[in-house]
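CHAIN AND CONFORMATION:

***
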Amino acid sequence: MMRTISSVLTSILMLAPLATPIHAANATTSQSTEITSFLAQDWTPKDFITSSNGKSVVTSTEFVNLLNTAADAAGYDQDIAYKSGDVVTRETAAVLLDQIIDVPYSQNLAYNDVKSSSYLPSIEVISTSGLIKGFSDSRYGYEQTLTKTDAAVIAYRLYQYLQPFNPVEASITSIQSAMETGRLTSEELVQLYLDRIEQYDDNGPKLNSIIKVNDQAISLAKELDAERSDQGSRGPLHGIPIILKDNFDTADMPTTGGSLALKDSVPADDAYQVKKLREAGAIILAKANLHEFAFGYTTTSSISGQTLNPYNLTRVPGGSSGGTGASIAASFATVGMGSDTGGSIRVPSSFNNLVGIRPTIGLSSRDGIMPLALTQDTGGPIARTVADAAAVLDATVGYDPNDVTTASSIGNIPDSYLDYLDSEGLKGARIGIVRDVFGTDSEINTVMTNAIQELKQGGATLIDNVSIPNFTQINSFGSLSAWEFKFQFNDYLTTLGDNRPYSTLSDIITTGLFDPSIAQQLKDRNNIGSLEDETYKDIVLYRTRLAQQAILKMMADNDLDALIFPTSAKQIVKIDGDQTIGDGFKLSSFTGYPTVTVPAGFTTDNMPVGMDFIGRPFSEPTLIKLAYSFEQSTQHRRTPVLTP
């Protein structure tokens, strides 16, 4: 077979790309790839295309028989009807294909060479589907006859087009392409994800990552499909299902923080970032489990119990955004949202082989996100790819009058973070290795050693043993969540209005409606008397200043674009274990500076390990460029075998 493929390709490489637009620079390469794929299929008729007949005109009988064979192989049981004729032109091919292709929103095209308007509806449908596109925006190729090579390419495209859409690992780009070409609607996509939630979260491995599914998701998807048909797409997130950590306010669903005490608490309005996502056309599909009130790294709560890691059901998924992490790893939605105070985006991303972006504090609003410690809190995307995370970041950043820190975002937001998806982004970059936070775990350090080598292979210069100035002193300061939570949580309860279930943290403690494992933390934090305490003020002032100066000095002294270290210096523990992660998280949490987490590899027992890129404030474009280049060259992302 390979000898046949090789000889056929040799003969067609110089053919005009009749089934693809002539203005596409890589059209010939694309067509040759499709011929290779066509010849490799089990259903390909023997000798339909050979080294000597590729330029031969295909008859209507040959063409229709080939299309029906491809459709049958794809599981489509309706045959194309036709009248026998000598040749097939591009317009008659469109009419034939239109019998089995249903594009819900075809493009209105302006082909000047289509002489008969009766063909135009079919041409628009088939051009939109991508099966036969025009040679240019104004020229379809009317009356041009098809060769056997063209027929083979079209048949392979038809076979691909008719395949059921697979949501597993589906990216925003692949989904939008499927929607734009009519292969998929948002309604169908939502149902595919709901089916997976039922199959793998409620049953099967029972990941227990979802607290509540949005009952309106299907109807919202229908509305967005109709809008796409009537007005076109709003942008990359149009019709895209998203899972939120259940500490993001949603006016149409309860926001529980993982606590039974708030199981019926429905906020008056959406969190700012949720509002922005909806405006971009996203669908809030579900609310995900979290470590109750975002207090820990294992993701257990009184409202939903323990979430499991999809890579090993005996391990924790990280936290506190572990429900989001597990659900996105298992392809229960396209992308997710988490919050991060002390690692809660980064750790679940690492533990679930995902990408996470903890934005610079001030880039994205925290309004409507249940607080843990606003000095450190932020919210951002958790996704399977850097590109998807960047697309969500585009939609959620910006100034919000209800979060004064976002005033600093003005002038610091690029046109699009997607512009920084450069596969060659590592070339010439200078990256510092922060050994101070690596720890001593040999499994983690082996993965990092390999990742460092991969960074070098990508063209980066690595500067080793970049030490953290004053790190001992920085580490000596306590947790701000221990100080701030009570006061800021009480303020949050006030925003819920007159119908709020409780007015204060004290009220909730009295009910006992929380997981017993956090009882002492709740009581200790509720016993904090005032934020006027000098110890608290010292943490806010001195710790923040020392940590920020340390990062900036490290980068300036070594002329660095970013710093790297393992997201967690510790391996993923078993359920009920005590999960710690080392000190690396502090570099971002204590400074408010941005971090992008990416998959770096796996331990010998097949558990994911993540790597953090941290940089200067508002350096998300640089970090995205570096992370994307690393991701593209290494491809460390793997689908969990437990949720195929």
Notes: The chain has 21 helices and 13 strands.
